[in-house]
Amino acid sequence: MPHIELLDQITIDKIAAGEVIERPASVVKELVENAIDAGATAIVTEIEDGGITMMRITDNGCGIEKTEVANAFLRHSTSKIRSAEDLFRISSLGFRGEALSSIAAVSQVELITKPREELFGTRYVIEGGKEKALEDTGAPDGTTFMVRQLFYNTPARRKFLKTPMTEASHISDLLTRLALSHPEISFQFINNRQTKLHTSGNGNMKDVIYHIYGREVANHLLPLDFEKNGVRLSGFLGEPLISRGNRNFENYFVNGRYVKSNILSKAIEDGYKDFSMQHKYPFVAFHLFLEQEKVDINVHPTKMELRFSAQQEIYNLVYQAVREGLHEKELIPVVEVPE
Ligand code: ADP
Ligand code: MG
User: Fold this and answer.
1) Which of 133, 163, 198 is a domain's end point?
2) How far apart are CA 334 and CA 240, in angstroms?
3) Which intervals hold domain DNA mismatch repair protein S5 (predicted)?
């Protein structure tokens, strides 16, 4: 009979890391979301070689106390929730407490962090889940994570990475969305020492849209402001004439979080149906706010999927909001002429 044994912590973390950390963009997502949760007003992301060799995320948020640093890297350790009930009123982007342990399990991490009220900062080094250093250091307020050699100890994973250019474009897409969803935060993205994105953080979503997509898009936006049954939509709808051939232009955020949702995409696209050509996807950038209890974000470790408790109601509301938003301006519906 084979002997049954509990795996050691490093192996457990490595296995679990596979669910959260798929590619460099997953690391950036987790670290930038942590920076947002930490109350940062400026977040800089620097990468080299598509993030495969180096990613550095710097924020001016609340920092981590020296006595808490090692704990932050333990699986299921979080400052954001305390019990399962809290899962139904999550106001932070993180809550599962598994990003740092996952990242540290499959890369070489150096952290420098300092809370504003502390005199000294802390430098912490952890590689493949093993602590290498914990010491005082001079540091600016906030937190810098340096992540090197992603998947250096899981060669099978490393093989699945695409070219640096493709990995960099995933990171760029992600930062674009984060910048759009948080116009009050300044985002900077530096790829191989070149600045690719730098938003002002002045709080104006339209300015971010202009910065990212240019004048052509920014000049063809309709404001979206809709409220019904405690559900609120706020942001912009692109005029049908700037629709594109793929869904990359659909940016929607549920309670502040960038997610993918078939229900929402369908409601938006159905709302545009009479206004744009077939097989065209609209530009949208808007927030959907609803009671936390009506949405479950704890569906998958990456927190990109969500479940609505009342799907049909959400579909109807979003559809109605889009229709009304488009009708406000006398857009001419596309008339399908039968052949
Ligand atoms: P979660 O975000 O789900 O809580 P993480 O593993 O991502 O779990 O982070 C663990 C904890 O480390 C967080 O709850 C937070 O207290 C702390 N932390 C992580 N990143 C930062 C940061 N940039 N600034 C301040 N605290 C941070
Ligand atoms: Mg987190």
Assistant:
1) 198
2) 10
3) 209-327
Token pair in block for residue 105: 């399990």
Interface confidence: ipTM more than 0.85: yes
Tokens of 339: 């052949």
Same domain, yes or no, for 105 and 153?
A: yes
Q: How many CA atoms lie within 13 A of 131 on its CB side?
A: 11
Distance, in Å, from the CA atom of 109 to the CA atom of 60, rounded to the nearest integer, reads 19
Q: Which of 36, 37, 145 to probe ligand 1 with, by most ligand atoms within 8 A of CB?
A: 37
Number of structural domains (the chain) is 2
189 in any annotated domain: yes
Q: What is the pLDDT along the chain (339 residues), one digit of tens a residue?
A: 889 999 988 888 888 888 889 999 999 999 999 999 999 999 999 999 999 999 999 999 999 999 999 999 998 888 888 888 877 777 788 888 899 999 999 999 999 999 999 999 999 999 999 999 999 999 999 999 999 999 999 998 999 999 999 999 999 999 999 999 999 999 999 999 999 999 999 999 999 999 999 999 999 999 999 999 999 999 999 999 999 988 889 999 999 999 989 999 999 999 999 888 788 899 999 999 999 888 888 777 777 888 898 999 999 999 999 999 998 776 666 666 666
Instruction: Give the Å distance between the CA of 169 and the centre of ligand 1.
Output: 25
Residue 298 forms part of a structural domain: yes
Q: Whose CA is nearest to atom 1 of ligand 1?
A: 97
Compute, in angstroms, the gap from residue 300 CA to the centroid of ligand 2: 14
Q: What angle do CA 42, 27, 116 make, to 5 degrees?
A: 35
Q: Ligand 1 — pocket residues by CB below 6 A?
A: 30, 34-35, 38, 59, 61-64, 72, 77-80, 94-100, 143
The Å distance, Cα 20 to ligand 1 centre, comes to 15
